[in-house]
Design brief:
- Helix 1 packs across helix 2 and helix 3 packs parallel to helix 4.
- The protein has four helices and seven strands.
- With about 150 residues, the chain is of the alpha/beta class.
- The chain is about 40% helix and about 25% strand.
Length: about 150
């Protein structure tokens, strides 16, 4: 077995168009060497609200994203373990999950965004790229015309 192939893959999802691509890629990488796939959704809780203060509809949406990830894993014959997390910011929560799960790779999907006419990565992807202790595979959706 190739020592460079990850045995523990983390895939964060947040309802973006890239979620299923990221889960599919994570599962395909895992299937080769029977690795474990962990899919997490981090619901951000605004400052000023207590952690645990989430709208029921928001939780239901996130559970739907995790259910979709489990179905994708099942279709690809890979067991996907899911978890719903609450945090102030997604980036640090993902880094904590990398450490806790001892993940060897993160497959992170991100949308195409522009800010002031330039491509913009947001906050989460740069944070994960900077602080991840493992490989990061970034999946960006196609650029929008304009």
């Amino acid at each position: 077995m190739d020592q460079h192939l990850p045995q523990r893959i983390l895939v964060p999802v947040n309802g973006r168009n890239t979620d299923q691509d990221a889960v599919r890629i994570g599962c395909r990488l895992a299937r080769r060497q029977k690795a474990k796939v962990f899919v997490v959704s981090v619901l951000e809780v605004r400052r000023g609200l207590a952690i645990g203060t989430l709208d029921a509809a928001e939780v239901e949406r996130a559970e739907g994203w995790l259910d979709a990830a489990e179905r994708t894993g099942k279709a690809l014959e890979v067991t996907v373990t899911t978890e719903l997390l609450q945090a102030r910011e997604a980036g640090p929560a993902i880094i904590d999950q990398i450490r806790e799960l001892r993940a060897e790779m993160v497959v992170l999907g991100m949308p195409w965004r522009q800010r002031f006419g330039e491509f913009h990565m947001g906050k989460t992807a740069p944070h994960v790229l900077r602080y991840a202790t493992c490989r990061v595979l970034l999946i960006r959706e196609e650029a929008h015309a304009g």
